[in-house]
Amino acid sequence: MNRLVLPLVIPLLTAIILLFAPRKALWQRWISFAGSIGLLAAAIALFLRIERDGIAVLQAGGWRAPFGITLVADLLAAMLVVAAGIVAVAVTATSFAGVDPKREASGYHPLLHVLFMGVCGAFLTGDLFNLYVWFEVMLVASFVLMALHRTRGQLEAAFKYVTLNLIASSVFLTALGLLYGGTGTLNLADLSTVFRGREMGAFELVLAMLFFSAFGIKAALFPLFFWLPASYHTPPAAVGAVFAGLLTKVGIYSLIRIFTLLFRDAPPGVYTLLLGQALCTMIVGLVGALAQRDFRRVLSFNLIGHLGYTSVGLALVTPAAMAGSILYILHHILVITNLYLVSGIFLRLRRTTQLAELGSMYRERPLAAALALIPVFSLAGVPPLSGFVGKVALLRATLEASAYWTSAAILVVGVLTLLSMGRLWEASFWKPAPNPEKAPLNRVILLPIAGLSAATLAITFAAEPLFTLALRAGEQLLRPEAYIEAVLYGGARR
Amino acid sequence: MELILAIAAGALYGTGFYMMLRRRLGQLIVGLGLLSNGTNLLIFTAGGLTRARAPIIAGDAQELARPYADPVPQALVLTAIVIGFGVLAFSLVLAHRVHIATGADDIEEIESGQ
User: Fold this and answer.
1) Which residue in A has a C-alpha nearest to residue B79's C-alpha?
2) What does the H/E/C string look like for chain A?
3) In this predicted model, which residue has the larger pLDDT, A442 or A465?
4) Which domains does chain B have, with CATH numbers?
5) How far B36 CA lies from chain A's nearest CA (Å)?
């Protein structure tokens, strides 16, 4: 079977098997975990092939592009699928430490895998309408995962999340309809040739802004991010980890795809706008983080702020800036997932993530504290951890592009992140806790955290080859001729 | 005809957003429904309205005779209707649950009553 479909077929099969397998917790957990391992293995195999042979294309049903649905993986897509695989393995591994039995009985495991399938599908598709469908697959799974719990706060958060995402989907669909009406195609590579050298008139600008609004809501960029801090702190830690690690990144990825393929010749004003929102996202996110008193809300705002970093590359359109953003996305997926899993430790120990209630971890649970130290300070960008690597790459790119305001913002936001993470560390690990722990800790939960921390360290040690890889991916994005060639003329038979 | 449909789509968008801004659960759901149907109508109209033949190549011809009705927007609308319907049903149930849990219909009240 073609390696391109495996990252889609494996989660689908796992979800189906999970639905029919015995409802015993242990069965469900092991099947779910095995499915995630399979996904990661398939993702790595795909990545290795693409790294060696270049862009891989699959025309579904043998229909030649642009008539059929195209699956296509370039370096960026393959790297993100690998990251999604890592998140899948880590999150399904945490369920061995215990999941709420009600949740597990109402389809928690199959839904997770449907979500992974949606995420991988969105990364791998080469067709805009297909992207919409994958978005909906992902969203419906996330809606249910979010609303499985029926406490008041969670339902309320789920409702906001659902409404805002449905509006975003409508905007996306509107843009799709207009685009098809104007061009007669929805294949990304084909659209890219149509838009090549075409002057950006009112039609193109309206489209660009519609896409920007739709994906901006999904990626939680300024000023469209308000749904995220209102909802991400309510679901259980493992679900929050998947959402924070993957869902917003799909929005960023779609923005990168659309803008590098369709709106390459956009007037400078569009890029100024993109850069402006990236800077605002960074600063507003981090200032918001400093005002929060809840571990997971601090993380939500940090997530928003750092999504700003990931869209800097999109706005500066140089290979180096794109590479910096890609590196930052990869680092951020691992680190933010890990931090949400760490919040799961607190939920288990103290039934809350209010910072005032936390503490004493450093003295009483040195192992957990040592493991959590890595993602906390990696997000803060303390050298030599992975956040520092990404930030340096971005900073150099902005200096090379003479975007000094951006460089200044990156530095200021870096300091703010350090401050925010320092306070988080002080409040949740260092200071003495006001109350004793309410429940024992199942040590199994430390394993995925240790794994993700190790992956974060791996980014540090492999910074050089990873940067080279990200640079290649960035060049591939900014010179899409190879992508177009592969989709429209190359991959007919594969 | 296109003008009429364009105005209808615009009206659906407008009323949809208006209903959502009313801050009541029930009206919000109605607003979502109107919005998704406005989008469907827009895709359908943007795909081109023709009183044309089905896109089937005649037995003795080599290629499709123009004008023909483009099937792609219709397929898109069909998919979008199905997805929109499912999601709307889900949000209706969710709204119902929120109403049961909070006993309120006004979104402000739901927020403040935590």
Assistant:
1) A133
2) CCCCCHHHHHHHHHHHHHHHCCCCHHHHHHHHHHHHHHHHHHHHHHHHHHHHHCCEEEEHHHCCCCCCCEEEECHHHHHHHHHHHHHHHHHHHHHHHCCCHHHHHCCHHHHHHHHHHHHHHHHHECEHHHHHHHHHHHHHHHHHHHHCCCCHHHHHHHHHHHHHHHHHHHHHHHHHHHHHHHHCCCEHHHHHHHHCCCCCCHHHHHHHHHHHHHHHHHHCCCCCCCHHHHHCCCCCHHHHHHHHHHHHHHHHHHHHHHHHHCCCCCCHHHHHHHHHHHHHHHHHHHHHHHCCCEHHHHHHHHHHHHHHHHCHHHHHCCHHHHHHHHHHHHHHHHHHHHHHHHHHHHHHHHCCCEHHHCCCHHHHCHHHHHHHHHHHHHHHCCCCCHHHHHHHHHHHHHHHCCCHHHHHHHHHHHHHHHHHHHHHHHHHHHCCCCCCCCCCCCHHHHHHHHHHHHHHHHHHHCHHHHHHHHHHHHHHHHCCHHHHHHHHHHCCCC
3) A465
4) 2-55+68-112 (1.10.287.3510)
5) 6
Q: Which of A140, A151, A154, A159 to mutate to test the interface with B (most CBs of B within 10 A)?
A: A159
Mean pLDDT of A5-21: 93
Average pLDDT per run of 10 along chain B, which is 114 residues long? 91 94 88 93 85 79 79 89 91 88 75 56
In chain B, residues with a C-beta closer than 8 Å to the C-beta of A182 are 46
Residue A307 pLDDT exceeds 50: yes
pLDDT digits (tens, 9 = 90+) for A231-243: 888 888 889 999 9
**Which residues does chain A have within 8 Å of residue B29's beta carbon, measured at their own beta carbons?**
none
Residues of B in contact with A169 (CB under 8 A): 87
